[in-house]
Amino acid sequence: RSIANLFHSHRELLYRPTVAAAGERSLRVAHGWSFAFDAAWQPQLWMLDGHALHIVTEDTLRDPDQLVSFIEENRIDFIEVTPSHAMQLSGAGLIKEGRCPLLALGVGGEAVPSPLWRDMRELEGTAGFNLYGPTECTVDALAASVANSERPLVGRPTANTTAYVLDARLQPVPAGVIGELYLAGAGLARGYLDRRSLTAERFVADPFGPPGTRMYRTG
Length: 219
Prior knowledge:
Elements: H1 2-21, E1 28-31, H2 41-45, E2 52-55, H3 58-62, H4 64-73, E3 78-81, H5 83-91, E4 104-108, H6 114-121, E5 127-132, E6 142-145, E7 156-157, E8 161-166, E9 180-185, H7 196-202, E10 203-205, E11 214-217
Parallel strand pairs: 1-2, 3-4, 4-5
Antiparallel strand pairs: 5-6, 6-7, 8-9, 9-11, 10-11
Helix pairs in contact: 4-5
Organism: Streptomyces sp. AAH63-42
GO molecular function, one term: phosphopantetheine binding
Pfam families: AMP-binding
């Protein structure tokens, strides 16, 4: 259910807008993550929408110049990487004078520095996205288009996801007040295998949802 929900969410957020920008053709997506990382699911789901997935070798992933060449030679339309990796790729020529060969660029796994956010906003013909989510909520729980804000944001909840910013008493904090992020919805995991105490600590009852539902305390 969780992976199916992620696919449904990204089809609306990423796949369909990028396909429209490409003139309704199928897309070429690069797999920019280690398969040991939960984010490795995200690029694989593009195949379910009929797009081609290009697997990048570990050696190429580690070399910004090689990866930029791979993107250009294979005419890749989309890749998601960490913000720090994106900055290395930019330095290797992926972003030059406000242009990028990609139709869409996703970043995730780290906070986005303001200079990178600005560079992504200024790209002509390339949509930029910040994707946030812990493993416990199936890869991506919040998403933001860089076009919608002048400063870095984690964005709004993805499809069938709810996000709360709460105080120590599990009450919503006013706008601008620091609190803790809790996530709930279709992407929520059941808990940690054979770790009941940790599951009870991190997956708590959702006081705002239907009876029996839970939310994840991100920390």
